Amino acid sequence: MNEDITAKMLEAIAETFEAMAKRLREIAEANRGLKKARGIEEIRKAFPQDLANMLTFENSEGFVVIRPRQYLGSETFSKIGAIVKGLQGEYISQGKSSHFRIKK
Predict the structure, then answer these.
(1) Is the pLDDT of residue 10 over 90?
(2) Burial class (CB in 10 A: 0-12, 13-18, 19+), 69
(3) Would you state the pLDDT for residue 15?
(4) Could you tell me if 91 and 81 are in contact, meaning their C-beta atoms sit under 8 angstroms apart?
(5) What are phi and psi of 11, to 5 degrees?
(6) First to last CA, the chain
(7) Strand order in the sheet with 90-92
(8) How high is the pLDDT of residue 51?
(9) Which residues contact 38 (CB under 8 A, 6 or more apart)?
(10) pLDDT value at position 82?
(11) What does each C-alpha distance from 62 to 37, 38, 54 come to in angstroms?
(12) If DSSP codes are grouped into helix, strand and coil, which group holds residue 90?
C-alpha cells in the first residue's frame, strides 16, 4: 500500500516538473521575441487602427516615440498606456512635450 502511495506521489511530482519545464520553455521563447529590435511598424501594429490613427510614431535614439495627434481623453489615454506598458514602454511627462516611448 505504501508503495502505491509513493508511486502516485512520484508521478504527481514528475507531472508538475513537466508542466513547469513546458512553462519555462514558453517564457524563454517569449523573451527571445522581446530581445530582437522592434521597429515603428511592428509597434504600430500592436495598436488597434482607431488608436494608431490618433498617434504619431517616430524613431528616436533607441526608442520609438509615440505622441498624440489630438487630445486623447482619459479613457483613450488609459487604453494607449496599457498597450505601451504591455510593450515594456513608459509615459514621459514633460508638459506639452509629453510622450510615450518604447525601447526598440
Answers:
(1) no
(2) exposed
(3) 86
(4) yes
(5) -65, -40
(6) 59
(7) 55-60, 63-68, 99-103, 90-92
(8) 94
(9) 64, 87, 102, 103, 104
(10) 95
(11) 9, 10, 23
(12) strand
Residue 102, number of CB atoms within 10 A of its CB: 22
Is the overall model pTM greater than 0.90, yes or no?
Answer: no
**Cβ-contact 39, 64 below 8 angstroms:** yes
Q: 87, 102 in Cβ contact below 8 A?
A: yes
Q: Is 40 in contact with 59 (CB distance < 8 Å)? A: yes
Max CA separation in the chain (angstroms): 74
Composition of the chain by helix, strand, coil, percent to 5: 60, 20, 25
Q: Which of 64, 66, 62 is nearest to 52 (CA)?
A: 66
Q: Indicate whether 35 pLDDT > 60.
A: no
- Cα separation of 44 and 62, whole Å? 16
Give pLDDT tens digits for 59-92: 998 899 999 999 999 999 999 999 999 999 999 9
pLDDT at 59: 93
